[in-house]
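Quick one, tokens below. Sequence please?
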């Protein structure tokens, strides 16, 4: 009797728990459905591709596109043909208003400096609970805090500072040339994307932080591996925000956490070294880390600000390395595809150098055709092809009302390929940059525009010219047959097949 009473109480309790779980789930489902419905209503007046699912929005279309080899950029280009320059996309319950209109770009990026949306930049704060880019310059969404940092870091990118970097750019190019000489036999395939990734990492580490990571000597140093692991983790996080919380991925979680700890520990060691030197009466070096330390008020309040200084350390590695490597790889890819353009670049560089090896600061301004080639490469293959911003109030673009607080997506990739803005947009034609740049400016913005324009734009372009000039002077490159010229869209864009080439010495 006692046992059956106890059993029926247990059953009652379990039934009660089950009812509670079902009710909470239903309630949550109902609230979430109302929320999603209200999002759809808010943007119902804006055209856009049909949602294949109430909850997942257009995600299935993106997945289908991916299976057919189309990246999100390609689909955006297709959709603008059907829906015009302003249309709405749903990635799960998030609505993104895609805007491909040059007046809107000018207004959002330059005139009004529209804020960065928290939902897009917050994921970079930490990965797997490990602080990653934190609130560094690129991810800071509070305007006043960002402005203060930017004003303190801007001097590190002034002409005077950049002029002093020429020796370093040349030294890193020397190391790369020495490395490539070992496989310059005309039959060893070399992924130039990998090589550019190594050399740009060597440059940013030495120039910005006075660190020698030995990346060009060893094949895969722990630091290089750590950066690559972090980049992949960011990509996974954007593609699937729940991935971090999935069970059974403890191994990946630990690997990424260790990678982030390695990056930040490397930064911390260098900061501590500098502080110790300063304690001995030495001046803090005037490189990017020196400016970061000042920007972080580190010297005034070390306990509180050290994490901020480390945020910037990680930010500059992430923002300043892969982007330049991709630009270099796409440029080389196009030079090898169009020998007459390659010939013009080589002729210009040979005439400027006249047998000299090292590139001087004055040479950079004289590389006018090479400049146009680099710009055209960024137009067709922008390493960072999309920007996200948020409207502060109701706006009207291309006669369509965009509600206040909407997340808007601006795509330099798509606009640069639209006939409305460029004649024969898919043709690689450096000469199009002969005309006044202001015509192209608001349709082609690979470094963004306005106050939040890339702080490293000039740095990157000087680095690109030095590397390109030095490599073309030393070697001939041949495109490995059978590779595609396609772009892989993994948050940043890079050549899908790694820009593989055969190399021979130029004097042989
Ligand atoms: C070809 C090379 C590069 C390209 C295409 C590029 C592109 C961009 C773009 C599009 C942005 C705006 C991102 C946004 O608004 O979300 C940006 C911001 C930024 N870039 Fe670059 N970048 C390049 C190289 C560099 C280099 C070499 C550095 C550092 C040495 C750097 C550091 C930064 C930083 C710190 C920001 C944030 C600026 C701010 O918000 O004030 N970038 N970059």
């Amino acid at each position: 009797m006692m046992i059956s009473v106890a059993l029926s109480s247990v059953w009652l309790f379990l039934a009660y728990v089950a009812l509670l779980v079902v009710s909470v789930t239903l309630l949550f489902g109902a609230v979430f459905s109302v929320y999603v419905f209200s999002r759809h209503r808010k943007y119902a007046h804006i055209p856009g591709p049909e949602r294949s699912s109430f909850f997942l929005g257009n995600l299935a279309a993106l997945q289908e596109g991916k299976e057919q080899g189309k990246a999100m950029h390609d689909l955006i280009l297709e959709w603008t043909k059907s829906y015009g320059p302003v249309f709405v996309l749903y990635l799960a319950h998030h609505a993104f208003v895609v805007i491909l209109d040059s007046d809107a770009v000018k207004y959002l990026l330059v005139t009004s400096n529209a804020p960065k949306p928290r939902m897009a930049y917050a994921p970079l704060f930490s990965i797997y609970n490990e602080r990653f880019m934190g609130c560094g310059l690129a991810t800071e969404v509070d305007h006043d805090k960002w402005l203060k940092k930017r004003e303190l870091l801007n001097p590190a990118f002034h002409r005077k500072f950049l002029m002093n970097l020429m020796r370093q750019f040349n030294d890193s190019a020397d190391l790369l040339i020495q490395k490539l000489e070992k496989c310059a036999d005309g039959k060893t395939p070399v992924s130039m994307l990998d090589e550019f990734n190594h050399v740009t990492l060597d440059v940013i580490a030495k120039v910005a932080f006075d660190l020698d990571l030995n990346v060009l000597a060893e094949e895969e140093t722990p630091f290089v591996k750590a950066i690559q692991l972090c980049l992949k983790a960011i990509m996974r996080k954007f593609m699937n925000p729940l991935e971090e919380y999935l069970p059974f991925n403890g191994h990946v979680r630990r690997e990424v956490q260790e990678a982030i700890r390695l990056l930040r520990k490397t930064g911390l060691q260098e900061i501590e070294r500098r502080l110790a030197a300063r304690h001995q009466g030495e001046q803090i070096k005037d490189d990017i880390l020196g400016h970061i330390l000042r920007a972080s008020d580190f010297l005034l309040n070390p306990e509180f600000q050290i994490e901020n200084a480390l945020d910037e350390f990680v930010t500059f590695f992430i923002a300043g390395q892969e982007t330049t490597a991709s630009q270099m790889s796409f440029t080389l890819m196009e030079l090898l595809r169009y020998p007459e353009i390659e010939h013009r670049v080589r002729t210009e560089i040979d005439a400027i150098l006249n047998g000299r090896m090292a590139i001087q600061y004055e040479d950079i301004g004289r590389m006018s055709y090479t400049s146009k080639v680099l710009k055209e490469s960024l137009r067709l293959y922008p390493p960072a092809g999309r920007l996200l911003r948020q409207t502060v109030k109701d706006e009207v673009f291309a006669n369509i009302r965009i509600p206040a607080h909407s997340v808007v997506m601006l795509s330099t990739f798509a606009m640069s390929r639209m006939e409305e803005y460029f004649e024969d947009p898919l043709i690689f034609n450096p000469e199009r940059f002969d005309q006044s740049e202001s015509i192209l400016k608001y349709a082609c913005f690979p470094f963004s525009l306005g106050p939040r324009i890339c702080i490293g734009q000039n740095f990157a372009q000087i680095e690109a010219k030095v590397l390109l000039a030095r490599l073309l002077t030393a070697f001939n490159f041949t495109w490995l047959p059978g590779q595609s010229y396609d772009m892989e869209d993994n948050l940043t864009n890079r050549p899908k097949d790694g820009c593989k080439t055969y190399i021979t010495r130029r004097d042989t």
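The chain has a mean pLDDT of 90. The CA atoms of residues 77 and 111 lie 26 Å apart.
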